């Protein structure tokens, strides 16, 4: 099973095309980010990224997965904002 932290790592790597830059943005080490991606790829049974010594790109499946993950992440952000707004204005009985 995969989890949100793995998805966040994947999205950042896709955004920056770099494990190092993604790790920096996530306040993680590149090794930790790499492990998250390895575990994600194992969990879903598909390779998401093509890695070379200087470049990272999405596989065909990775590009499709990225689009869906982006939509889900946007929905989660929307849900988080909704919850926060309800905390600011508690229900009055």
From TrEMBL:
GO terms for molecular function: DNA binding; DNA-binding transcription factor activity. The keyword Transcription applies. It comes from the Bacteria. Residues 1-59 form the HTH lysR-type domain. The keyword DNA-binding applies. Keywords: DNA-binding, Transcription, Transcription regulation. Signal peptide: none annotated. Belongs to the LysR transcriptional regulatory family. This is Transcriptional regulator. It comes from Legionella oakridgensis ATCC 33761 = DSM 21215.
């Amino acid at each position: 099973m995969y989890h949100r932290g793995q998805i966040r790592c994947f999205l950042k790597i896709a955004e920056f095309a770099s494990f190092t830059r993604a790790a920096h943005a996530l306040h993680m080490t590149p090794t930790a980010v790499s492990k998250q991606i390895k575990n994600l790829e194992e969990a879903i049974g598909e390779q998401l990224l093509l890695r070379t010594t200087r470049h990272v790109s999405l596989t065909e499946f990775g590009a499709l997965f990225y689009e869906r993950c982006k939509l889900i992440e946007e929905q989660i952000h929307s849900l988080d904002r909704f919850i926060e707004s309800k905390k600011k204005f508690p229900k009055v009985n």
